[in-house]
Amino acid sequence: KKFVNKRNIIINRYDYLLKELKPLLCPIEKYEYSVTSFHLYVVLINFDRLLISRAKMINILKKKNIGVQVHYPPLHLQKIYGSKKQLPGSEEYYSKCLSLPLFPQLQISEVEYITATIKDIILKYKKK
Description:
Helix content: 40-55%
Largest sheet: 3 strands, antiparallel
Order of helices and strands: HEEHHEH
Radius of gyration: 15 Å
Shape: globular
């Protein structure tokens, strides 16, 4: 319960600090009737409206000591399944998703650093 409460504080801060970046960056939608432990904090980034790829953004963030990840590749694209099927919704989600750091020991000052860095990148690479 303590970890879930801390994660909720972090999530709320992320949401507040990132809201001005919509529609270029949108957190995954949350539902009032849903209770979650927030295993991940996922944002969807509209890379079609940016002059930067997700891979380049990840590299910039890593150089600034911000560990982001991509969770999770769609099952039908994983080699073990070898599927030739196309699932456009899953593929679109996967092309935009990025998981930001989220763990109970994360400090609010670190959340502010992460969001400020992401804002700088998005505003720098925003298409005119």
